[in-house]
Amino acid sequence: MYKHRQTGTVWRRNLFLLWLIAAAVWPAGGEDPVIVYITNSGRRYHREDCSSLRRSRVPVTLGDAVQSGYEPCLICDPPVLASRSPSRSGIYRVSREKPLSCEGVEFSRLVRAEVIDHIDGDTIRVQISNPPEELRTLETVRLIGVDTPETVHPRRGLETFGREASDFTKSRLLGRPVYLAFDWELRDRYGRLLAYVYTQDRRCHNAEIIRQGFGHAYTRYNFHFMEEFRRMEQEARRAKRGLWGTASTKE
Question: Are residues 217 and 192 in the same domain?
């Protein structure tokens, strides 16, 4: 008799726990909830197959994750609430936000894209899923503030260190996700998108080209990080990195 009563109590308690779980993840309006995953220690939410979930995964609704202060993962690109969508909140412009350095941007606000082709060291083609209003799904991106030796120019042909600069960009970006920030001008006269391109390790590829000596700071037009890029070029020149170590550019 006691065992039967105890079994009934356990069954009712388990049923109540299941009801609590259902109430937590199922919206009152009857619509299917968007489920994302958080970890025991991180402050970002993820898709179910994200590599960041190797150690722990806790399913929660997207609304609860956002309300609790979790930010979207920068690797798996999970869904976002409509009010937080880049197409509604605008693009990230360094000229407006004024970060102190190119590595100081608000990475979570950048536009995610996939590099589908590269043209040369300072120009790539990207695909953007659900692009903001100002952008297109397929874009040719000209990197801001940097100029690399030519490889495909119709008149100048292949310039010294052009192939090396092109291969550097190809090896770091092609087939990988990147994150785009913008400046005063969104496009050049050819319609190309002007952007600072960030890799998943949060490094600005525009700056890396200059640091490693694969190109120089392009100062013909003003841009937010101009002085920072100039200093990087001076350091690369002194260290004779990349093209600054070739015979044609030695001072």
Answer: yes
Rounding to the nearest 10 degrees, give the CA dihedral for residues 198, 203, 206, 208. -150
The answer for residues whose C-beta is within 8 angstroms of residue 29's C-beta and 6 or more apart is none
Alpha-carbon span 192 to 189, nearest angstrom: 7
For residues 154 and 213, membership in a common domain is answered with yes
Kindly give, in sequence order, each residue whose CB lies less than 8 Å from that of residue 197, ignoring residues fewer than 6 positions away: 124, 141, 143, 173, 178, 179, 180, 204, 205, 206
61 and 173 part of one domain: no
Please give the positions annotated as active site: 136, 150, 192
Domain that holds residue 181: 94-245
**pLDDT (tens digit per residue) in 148-207:** 987 655 565 556 677 898 999 999 999 999 999 999 999 998 999 999 999 999 999 999
Residues 63 and 130 placed together within one structural domain of the fold: no
Strand partners, 114: 127, 177
CA separation, residue 228 to residues 77, 179, 219, 244 (Å): 30, 20, 11, 18
CA pseudo-torsion sign 95, 99, 103, 104: negative
Q: Look at the block and give the residue holding tokens 């990080």.
A: 225
Q: Is residue 177 part of a domain?
A: yes
Residue with tokens 């119709």: 154
Query: What is the domain count for the chain?
Result: 2
